[in-house]
């Protein structure tokens, strides 16, 4: 979190150190758990309510996530003003801590997402009903954050482009959601999906969320970042080259291999990437190894299918 002075100071130490040692850019993602608050750690039971030590939770409507989850209190206008103020305060702390980019989390059934989806928003006031009304509060939060964030620094919004459930958000809805945030000053739409309701039926598979990024980018003409089951550098480059996204987010690949990006750069021979001096020996080693591996792969493919690969390798060499 970044909601008190201790958090701000700790993050500033981290951001300052990394900026001093590399060209890395830091993005701060801010969100409110909403009806998913008071839950266990992910590895202890994702979205499962705490057995003890929970706290009162709020949401767009009084609908629990699981049937046995605590029932959230429907937000009042006073609650909304308080949440907006908290988001602005966290935004200001992020700026003082030195973050380079800011993202508002409005996906996965958390507080702001609970307003956007018709499955979690059954309000009968100006914040419920039509998509325009359901976007009203998330847009109020975003505009307040944008006003508190420097104009020269980018802001993004993470959305769930589909709820994977009957009666929920669809890709066509997501195009309109993206347009609304872009008109409010959003620079990039971070396109995820689902996790809105417990009985969703996502269709998992390789790069399974990328089509939604593709749709928003090419129908709305917006910059997007795709995420989800993207595990190789070839997949990343194919997505970018095909115009399906402007950026690609990789979380799990880096959790299991912090040097994923360095290894990918070595495989493609991208010599110009920055490397802290204390890691240069390792960089040189992996670049040498990757060059040999590319040669071995080329020879193997030529032997296996000479007619198929000979012209391809010749063109690449030229």
Summed up, the domain count is 2
Based on secondary structure, the structural category is alpha/beta
What strand line-up does the widest sheet have? Answer: 1-4-5-6-7-8
Order of helices and strands: HEHEEHEHHHEHEHEHEHHHH
CATH homology-level superfamily of the largest domain: Aldolase class I
Q: Give the low-confidence spans.
A: none
- Strand percentage lies at 5-15%
- Output the radius of gyration: 22 Å
Provide mean pLDDT, rounded: 94
DSSP strand tally: 8
Shape: globular
CATH class of the largest domain: Alpha Beta
**Helix content bin:** 40-55%
Second rung of CATH, namely the architecture of the largest domain: Alpha-Beta Barrel
Helix count, DSSP H or I runs of 4 or more residues: 13
Query: What composes the largest sheet?
Result: 6 strands, parallel
Structure, described:
This protein is α/β, with parallel strands linked by helices. It has two domains: about 250 residues, TIM Barrel, CATH 3.20.20; about 60 residues, no CATH class. Helix content is about 45%, strand content about 10%. The strands form two sheets. The chain has a six-stranded parallel β-sheet with strand order 1-4-5-6-7-8. Strands 2-3 form a two-stranded parallel ribbon. Helix 1 runs parallel beside helix 3, helix 3 runs parallel beside helix 6 and helix 7 crosses helix 8.
